[in-house]
Description:
With about 425 residues, chain A is α/β, with parallel strands linked by helices. Chain A has helices at about 10-30, 35-40, 65-70, 105-120, 140-150, 160-170, 180-195, 215-225, 340-345, 385-400, and strands at about 85-90, 95-100, 125-130, 155, 175-180, 205-210, 230-235, 240-245, 255, 260-265, 280-285, 295-300, 305, 315-320, 325, 330, 335, 350-360, 365-375, 405-410, 425.
Amino acid sequence: MIWNSAEQLTARAMASLQLERLQRVIRHAYDHVPFYRERLSAAGLDPASFCSLRDLERIPFTVKTDLRDHYPFGLFAVPQQQIVRYHSSSGTTGKPIVVGYTRTDMENWVDCCARVAAAAGVTADDTCQISFGYGMFTGGFGMHAGIERIGAGVVPISSGNSERQLMFMQDFGTTVLVATPSYVLHLTEVMKNLGIACEDLKLRVGLFGGEGHTPEMRVLIQERLGIVDTQNYGLTEVMGPGVSYECLENCGMHINEDHFYPEIINPDTGEVLPEGEEGELVLTTLTKEGIPMLRYRTKDITRLMREPCRCGRTNVRMDLVRGRTDDMMIIRGVNVFPSQIEAVLMTVHGIGPHYQIIVTTEQFMDRLEVQVELTDGQRLERYGQLQQLTQEIRQKIRTVLQIDVKVTLLNPQTLERTAGKAKRVVDLRTSRTF
Amino acid sequence: MLVKQISVFLENKSGRLAEVTRTLKDHKIDIRALYIADTTEYGILRMIVDQPEKAQEILSAAGFTVSSTHVIAIAIADHPGTLDEALETLSSGAISVDYLYAFVGRASDDAIVIIRVENPQLALEKLEEAQIRVLDSREVYGT
């Protein structure tokens, strides 16, 4: 069903709503965030001068490092007292990025996520198991609130412990699963091992997000679970889940345009591309109070589609994300930059500056191996010292990324040296998410 | 009275150990004793060789992570109880053994035991007090 009439506005009504909101958010950002005030002033822009949506193109882009550099609250546009929720995700190196939501932001977020679930056919009669991580990750809490708003029963099981996931799924008669597509495929492997057939489950719909979703994965999920597979998209920097979502037509993800204004740019020149062309998605939040984002570069490659959708929604759709303009990897739904791992390795003594990251899948779960060269011979003298070294690396990476990696020690001079850009990541995943 | 031991890091890949032995062979270095400690992920090769300084140099040059350390070599008669006596001596002196390995000598019937401890000087005193024969590098080769 269509949850909010905003999903069916005429193009004209949407554009006028967007312009009104855009003017307000630019003014809000300019008045309350020194970063934006300086940016706009430096570009000679007056917040009162934005008379059309195209004027947005004059505003400089905001990027992930801007968030990181203003850690924790430097880009907030309201005093901390007005923030009712914080979330965070990994930055490109070291410090994470932090976002805050006001009460109004929360209300909008819940509504956006309710639209995601409703578009996938979730109703008050459903029982929904949320296998996204809770905590600082936006995925769990965002989808939780949206689904609860619809009136469906929420099972906030969070991520991990596949056997318990399957036990609840059987015993509760779970009908909807919210997870990353790769975790779903992993669950199907566990089902096979435990002798659980898809007929033993009442699952009928999957709301998948947190990472990309290839057509091959979709076919596999259909084959193994026989459920309706929908994908949704979001990112912490602008909101979390609830930015865009597929309807049952499976023909791209409808963007909640009344809250997020999309542009597609040429990632090299920054120039806005004509509608329909593929490029990098740039989002401007139209209603965010806590941390407004003006022209945030998502680094995700997609295109916009405006042809009418048979579902009756009129909001523009974005294609499934085809890749990224940077080297960000998504490992079990967690954003990982090689630079984050590099920053950790630089703090470890006894290893060389070269490293390589190997990504593989084991039963559809992503595995990360970090290869480093051992340079400190003194570590050979006592047993346990090498193990201490690998443990130290693992522990430090876990602290930064919340994921477990395998650390392999190599002889010096083993990793390939290149004159140009080093090949830091070898992605051997069979079902590459991007 | 200490003997120099070479330790080499071995990646868990086939052919790594052979690379070490080939490098030593090419430089005509003789291995008197060796011992490998391995985990599932890597190994550490420990060796007593006739030219430890040279061995360390050429192995480093060949791209291995190498270190050298001083260990104690003792000669004990090859019959029951002798190793126990040596270890009791160390243990009564509150000296803990990091690791040890043994091989049978060339010229005599004695077994040679290589012992690595945290404080070798103290260990030497205790062993000498107990009249256990400690060997120098020349003897390790000569026996």
